[in-house]
Amino acid sequence: MVFLKFFKPMLLSERSHAFDDDKFLYELKYDGYRATIHVSPKTIKVYSRNGIDLTSNFPELKSIKGLVKHETIFDGEIVSFLNEKPSFSDLQVRGRIKSKYKIEEKALENPVVFVAFDCLYEDGEDLTHFDLLKRKKILEKFGTNDNFILSSYSIGQGKSLFKKIKKLDLEGIVAKRIDSEYVPEARTKDWIKIKNYKCESFFIGGFIDTQFKRSLLLGEYRSDDKLYFVGKVSVDKLKVFDNKVYSRSPFCNYKEKEINYFKKLSKCEVIYIERTPNGNLREPVFKRMVENG
Question: Is residue 82 within a helix (H) or strand (E), and if so which, with residue range?
Fold first, then answer.
């Protein structure tokens, strides 16, 4: 591992239900940007999981330089907090700003926080071959400030932690084998995410076909008795609908051309992470059709 050279971080597999296992530690899954921070007392580089240099987007993270004595690499999540909860929508707004003046203004108004959950490199030594608990102990020797905190964890008790995050309506938890090495770019069963999905039924107002997939257009009726578009969800392209298609949109807020719209609306059940500020679904996943929708 080279100090300032980008590498793709270790990835997570997924399970649908929380579990207890003394071979695993459990921590919160923060809703933010996965990032690695390469920092020394004199320099800092912030890379997204895809290698995008985010250093200039979040200048407040430069304060982390004051917490290290040597060249160090942290893995973690850039998080924007709003009303004491992670706000992915607020973070997306920050990430899209191009003006240096506006970036600095936002950094002062509502600074982001880097939640560190791993230490991969320190003072010329590659730590990725150490087991996770040893890397956690190394991470714990670093101080914290307004822009840098450490992810807390517990061992063995995944179900109780998941129950707590459901009450708080947070994104989910992560389970990691305590003896796992850090393998860049790998997706293994050593690291597992368990997401706090919501489940609702929505009307299907039409569909879009591309070469590789079919996307259903989802909607819901609101207090004014109008059908509002809330997002698209991918399904097997072989799924067949027997109702006729029309060119006129049934949605009051979505009217795109060359789409197959329905007059007779069926319903499907969808799981998703959360709603955006305008009511759209984040990360929707098709679950099943609902009879007599």
Answer: strand 81-82
Kindly name the residue from 5, 8, 23, 29 that is annotated as catalytic: 29
CATH domain 198-290 topology: OB fold (Dihydrolipoamide Acetyltransferase, E2P) (2.40.50)
Contact assessment for residue 284 and residue 270, using Cβ atoms and an 8 Å cutoff: yes
Q: For the chain, what are the domain ranges?
A: 26-153, 198-290
CATH for the stretch 26-153: 3.30.470.30
Q: Is 160 left (phi over 0), alpha (psi -120 to 50) or beta?
A: alpha
pTM beyond 0.85: the answer is yes
pLDDT given at position 213: 84
Residue 245 CA to residue 248 CA, distance in Å, equals 9
User: Has 29 been annotated as catalytic?
Assistant: yes
Q: Tell me the residue type at 54.
A: L
Q: Which residue do the tokens 């191009």 mark?
A: 98
From the list 209, 237, 206, the residue with the least C-alpha distance to 219 is 206
